[in-house]
Amino acid sequence: MSEAYAHVLTKFGEALHDRRYPLPDPGPGEVLLRLEVSGVCGSDVHQWQGLDPRVPLPLIPGHEGVGRVVATGGEARDVQGAKLAEGDRIAFNRGVSCMACRTCVVLRQPALCPHRWVYGITRSCQDPPHLVGCYSSHVLLARNVQTLCLDDDLSPVVAVTAGCSGATAAHCFEEVRPGFGSRVVIQGPGPIGAYCAAFAKASGAETIIVVGGTASRLRLCEELGATHTINRRETTVAERLEEILELTGGEGADAVYEAAGDQAAIAEGLKWLRTGGAYVSCGVAEPRGGLEIDFFHDIARRNVRLQGIWVSDMRHLLEAVRLVEGQPETFERLVDGRFRFEEANEALEAVAAREVSKAVLIHDGPS
Amino acid sequence: MSEAYAHVLTKFGEALHDRRYPLPDPGPGEVLLRLEVSGVCGSDVHQWQGLDPRVPLPLIPGHEGVGRVVATGGEARDVQGAKLAEGDRIAFNRGVSCMACRTCVVLRQPALCPHRWVYGITRSCQDPPHLVGCYSSHVLLARNVQTLCLDDDLSPVVAVTAGCSGATAAHCFEEVRPGFGSRVVIQGPGPIGAYCAAFAKASGAETIIVVGGTASRLRLCEELGATHTINRRETTVAERLEEILELTGGEGADAVYEAAGDQAAIAEGLKWLRTGGAYVSCGVAEPRGGLEIDFFHDIARRNVRLQGIWVSDMRHLLEAVRLVEGQPETFERLVDGRFRFEEANEALEAVAAREVSKAVLIHDGPS
Amino acid sequence: MSEAYAHVLTKFGEALHDRRYPLPDPGPGEVLLRLEVSGVCGSDVHQWQGLDPRVPLPLIPGHEGVGRVVATGGEARDVQGAKLAEGDRIAFNRGVSCMACRTCVVLRQPALCPHRWVYGITRSCQDPPHLVGCYSSHVLLARNVQTLCLDDDLSPVVAVTAGCSGATAAHCFEEVRPGFGSRVVIQGPGPIGAYCAAFAKASGAETIIVVGGTASRLRLCEELGATHTINRRETTVAERLEEILELTGGEGADAVYEAAGDQAAIAEGLKWLRTGGAYVSCGVAEPRGGLEIDFFHDIARRNVRLQGIWVSDMRHLLEAVRLVEGQPETFERLVDGRFRFEEANEALEAVAAREVSKAVLIHDGPS
Amino acid sequence: MSEAYAHVLTKFGEALHDRRYPLPDPGPGEVLLRLEVSGVCGSDVHQWQGLDPRVPLPLIPGHEGVGRVVATGGEARDVQGAKLAEGDRIAFNRGVSCMACRTCVVLRQPALCPHRWVYGITRSCQDPPHLVGCYSSHVLLARNVQTLCLDDDLSPVVAVTAGCSGATAAHCFEEVRPGFGSRVVIQGPGPIGAYCAAFAKASGAETIIVVGGTASRLRLCEELGATHTINRRETTVAERLEEILELTGGEGADAVYEAAGDQAAIAEGLKWLRTGGAYVSCGVAEPRGGLEIDFFHDIARRNVRLQGIWVSDMRHLLEAVRLVEGQPETFERLVDGRFRFEEANEALEAVAAREVSKAVLIHDGPS
After folding, report:
1. Of the partner residues D81, D102, D314, the one whose CB lies closest to the CB of residue A80
2. What is the distance between the alpha carbons of residues B82 and B202, in angstroms, rounded to a whole number?
3. Is the minimum CB–CB distance between B245 and chain D shorter than 8 Å?
4. pLDDT in tens, C220-238
5. D82 touching chain A per CB within 8 A
6. Is the pTM higher than 0.95?
7. Which of A107, A108, A146 sits opposite D100 (nearest CB)?
8. How far are the Cα atoms of B60, B134, C237 from residue B35, in angstroms, in the given order?
9. Does ipTM exceed 0.90?
10. Regarding the domain with residue range D3-150+336-362, which homologous superfamily does it belong to in the CATH classification?
11. Structural domain boundaries of chain D?
């Protein structure tokens, strides 16, 4: 293959167009990657629809990808020091932070770097090297992209879910890590919520309740760690509060993780906390207008922590990959929509219509 | 003196009445205390007005008091192990936690104990031993009240401010302690805000900005640690934001501490934070209705922590006392309203009318 | 039964004697407990041999016990607020801290309370109420003993191991909690080491290596969480170092937990750490003389934390009980020596001779 | 000036030789710096004597330097985002970490990066660009060296002490930050110990005891924050222990910071801790052979943390600079040996002979 084949967004809300780009020779420290799987994230839909102000056109969408090394510009190493060779399967950190500013170096929060740019979101494919999004046969990883070699045994379909959903969940659990024997509620049984269930189990939580609207996804969360599930389509607000109090010794939860993407969930979920508990929200990824909270009763009087979470960094990606390695078959079932790479538009529409929760594009070729 | 003399609230919103009670003999572990100074807290006004649902009648108000030991029931020791003797000056933790429940013992957050009761707020003086509030010549400290011996050199007027305002500020700084060289904003230059300025300095913060409406109180905050002050009566919302950004390297503050007691302050102050910053609120002590926040921009996108703070525990009281010991004359000037003990009603009215920020009642007698 | 039947140590190194004591009526807040299972801890042997300077004679040994409530003095509640009733099965915190001193209240480390006393170790049975050790049919729990109601389904044989070994391991993991995907080594596959393996798994560690000398115990550790084991009887110091480096990506472990009870283990285990790692030691429970370490290479140059652990508190006991509830059958196999209560001397000798790793005394009667 | 003038170590233990090197044109992101002040660190003496195995020959020694920008290769920015311009005074992080490996990116401990190299220690001046040590008129800062613009008001003599001594002390206080009102002991009143006194004060510690052998340096520590000093030349081991216990309420210190550079200090200082305290050691910078500790009594039984500290990172440098900005005149007095740049050999000898504690070389030219 001497050309890359990409799907390009040229006008918001319209179908992506196919484009061909020359395969670049990687410069010093760069890595040319042939993708095996591209993930379709819920936020891709918002970007497609023009709701994300960060997006320039034309754009190759897609910030989730796992693939194999085609070539490196001189020596390149992954984050664990492994030398990258042709054919190695790797994941990479979709966000590229400067690792030089006060946020990266002094505060040590590269996820929040003001100079961070993101594959598939913030850079146009207009100019060379073009290949800066994952809806493409190839991507060119810049010199300072952080990579991680994967076991050949680990399905790229599984690994691709770790890159964004898994890493974001890991970030939530870095900020607020539940104690041994603690009681946790998770709002939203989508990909991030499912990862949250698994991270809660890996934290030694005893009671892990997932609240959601789709029975099949709630069952999957049970396999990943949930000890109880509540179907919000079959319960009222009052019933959910009552059930959660009952499951948490009448005290409320030690922590609630919001991965529902709905501000109404926040106002409801704050009431599930015990005094001194923590509410961690990662599901609100674009502007939604005002949120009204009962500050005295839900925050002040109960000494509650409300923690916003924004994106993730390499630590989180590594933790998510380690997590899925322990239970890959179950995590693979997170993916309920598999499309051929050519079907990018169909995949986007299926996610937009909420017909599937997690879609991936499978590339042709030897894998 | 063989009787205690107390001011009793018998009907919300009406003047307190004088009452006499017999001086009790302290039972095992109890301490009978003759007060030298009683503090008048802003929340006393709310209780007087009937806005605090915890208050039973009749009540001896007052949760702030410093005095001298009259007698102990057998041996009694302070939190540092000192044996209490007649004539010792002591402070005490106004909140009495059970030290036996999951919150006290497992979560180690006695301030949040569900069984916590508070002198001058939650127990009626109807039944013996009656003396459970500080608007009284004497209080009887129950066996499990935590006490702290004070140096005779430390003015009881200073020490009394540490008991509630100082300890609450200490609690804020336990939850979110700014780093060396950090940039901090404090909303509200009242007693808690002034303590926050001093704790910020004791945390090694470099830039400490206090925002408030009273020039004299802002000047006092400068003596306690503020490096800059902003008078909110002389500035617009936009000007304050601009000035704070300028003082924080264009990034926003690492932490904002709210001691203004006004929900509008919260919505404004959240915008002063840098990405990854923390907002700590201890000023909202009674229901205020809904608060609208721009969740995406002010919490989610900026990975912000919003932390409610409720009351305080013995650790905080000790930290506050240690703090004032280093600068007692300056802290003494926090008290801008000194009343004779007999003038409790006048003191309450002066605080209610916001004529004074911090009032104390000075008791007669050898001190 | 109107009398308690106890084994009493009257002379160090000699056989325990049977004694009868009247069953006391519990005073206010006290709980009279009929034991179902008494644990025999390795430190019981040291106390029996007179190596522990805290022990007064005569002594009813035994600080591990699970039993059923016979009577309470008025209302008594467990740490979670459950009212204790006759017949309830409970565990209790063997150490009784004052919950009033600076260590308990300000530092919030009740395990380190200078006033802490311990059932079966620090109080003689000479004087009433006599029943302050677990080698007895009954114990009288003082008013401030912290208790925990257990499910009837949970075997008391399992629960008794949580009280000391499990809680001590929990304390280790409170001080140093390994991150998701981390690499951990545990020295010693005895009861504490086995709990450490389970807590490491509950922390989300990826690589959990247990080093020990008994194949059967290493296998048990594998069932509880160990991903690898190394038999120290079949390997040299150099081989162990090499194997651990290989299993930890050539870097060394993030954390090493010492539960071997042998100072030589410390000098060896420090070398297994990665730069920036932590060594946590809870196995050295009595004086052993000097330990020589290579401070520059093993601590300074590698920025290592060496953390001593002393005993445990109620948080730790609760965490250990929650842990065993998830896998009770496996934890039950920790107990490799079951003796009738009458065989206390035989049990002590078996532990002293290292014929069994964890012994319990099973009491007669309905259970 | 078209040439750089450097002092070069060509044979261990012998005098440095003068060398001239051509001034390089900075490549992309590089910065050519003309030094105003070069610091002489105690470890320079060890390197000179050949005791540090990291040192290649020939070497331009010196890892401490403050100077002014001569030229940049294209745009270069400091860690706070300021664009570097000719004439700007800057400090820089002496250690250059890769910011790409697991240690830097996942563990977020760039001080411990295995690829870290250090100006003046680990790179020979044999090959271009030669200028990789601070005993030189100029240094060339590589693209990934972290820099910090300084106020023109801040004396470079002061700033240079922050770069190594100050930053190392900051690292100690990141690992173990004493609480408000805590009690702290510092061993060694040299440059690092003096910074420790100032950081202890900036942490809100109440009691700050410095132990050392030179009266004048102890007095300087008092100006920086020490509340008490103990002269070890005038006291016995037993007297020091007694005095420290007396100053710490009979409990021992919450934390002890070792900056004495002497292993005997460690064995002594461990005994000054309270139960649950922390011992932080940064003074042992090269191999010293075995250290014997009483592990049971000094670590295990008292639940002590012993923390080794190795070097520092950019966060620490920034904190140290912020610290000195508050009290520059006092910090300037840390420097008790000022030499002309030409007198590098004399300066080294004075430090080796312990005639001065902190020496600097002052460069000629406009400043």
Report:
1. D102
2. 27
3. no
4. 999 999 999 999 999 999 9
5. no
6. yes
7. A146
8. 14, 8, 68
9. yes
10. Medium-chain alcohol dehydrogenases, catalytic domain (3.90.180.10)
11. 3-150+336-362, 168-308
